[in-house]
Amino acid sequence: MNSKQLNTDHIILASASPRRKELLGAAGLVFDIQPSDIDEEGVSYEGHPAEYAKTLSTLKASAVAKDHPDSWIIGADTIVVADNHILGKPKTRDDAKLMLSSLAGRSHFVYTGFCIVHNAKKVQTASAVETTVVFKSLTDAEICWYADTDEPYDKAGAYGIQGIGGFMVKEIQGSYSNVVGLPVCEILEAMAKLDIIRYLR
After folding, report:
1. C-alpha distances out from residue 141 to 29, 88, 108, 137, 146, Å
2. Are the C-beta atoms of residues 99 and 131 closer than 8 Å to each other?
3. Beta bridge partners of 79
4. Looking at 77, 83, 94, 150, which residue is catalytic?
5. How far apart are CA 19 and CA 165, in angstroms?
6. 14 contacts 35 by C-beta, under 8 angstroms
7. According to DSSP H, which parts of 109-175 are helical?
8. Which terminus of the chain is more exposed, N or C, with fewer CB under 10 A?
9. Cα angle 8, 11, 17; round to 5
């Protein structure tokens, strides 16, 4: 085993997100990827957005855990919320421009829910992390320029803080990696409590 590898048990990330893959790998975890196929559109948004993010992450992890009962499954879901309204991934350039205009010059919230499941061990735990993100004021030219890049269209809220979209972010309060797609500090703490990872051997 690589001396930098934290886990000995088998882990599966129930997500196809390249950003989550990169964050977990950089943290020292070795894992496989098996994206969940749940229908997110069929899950109604009720109550607090943190609970909604937890629900989605739990559904994702549980769906993959059915086929891999002897593995630790990590599910995650990130949502962007402004005025208690969830901003999904823009489908068109006009969608992206509208989302960015609604976020310009003000704060919004990013929630990532994560769930860790092991069916054979009968373990399931879920949590959600909130980060406040403040955008600078944006000109129409800046919004149009960014909307013409490829970046907004596979990201909730129509921006990527770790990419070109970082130029719009004036301030964050809370976890940076949470905005990227996975709260690394919190998820590793949860895994350490479950004895999935060990720093000393």
Report:
1. 41, 23, 22, 12, 9
2. no
3. 111
4. 77
5. 15
6. yes
7. 140-147
8. C
9. 140
Residue identified by tokens 């085993």 is 1
Is 148 considered catalytic here? Answer: no
Identify the bridge partners of residue 114 per DSSP, sorted by sequence position.
76, 127
- In the structure encoding, which two tokens stand for residue 91, read together? 């489908």
**67: exposed, middle or buried (Cβ count in 10 Å: 0-12, 13-18, 19+):** exposed
pTM equals 0.91
Length reported for the chain = 201
The 10 Å Cβ neighbour count of residue 21 is 16
- The tokens describing 47, both together, are 């109550």
Alpha carbon distance 127, 50 (integer Å): 8
Residue 155 CA to residue 162 CA, distance in Å, equals: 11
pLDDT tens for the chain, 201 residues long, are 555 778 889 999 999 999 999 999 999 999 999 999 887 777 777 789 999 999 999 999 999 999 999 999 999 999 999 998 999 899 999 999 999 999 999 999 999 999 999 999 999 999 999 999 999 999 999 999 999 999 999 999 999 999 999 999 999 999 999 999 999 999 999 999 999 988 755
The answer to whether the beta carbons of residues 17 and 34 sit under 8 Å apart is no
- Please say whether the beta carbons of 77 and 35 come within 8 A: no
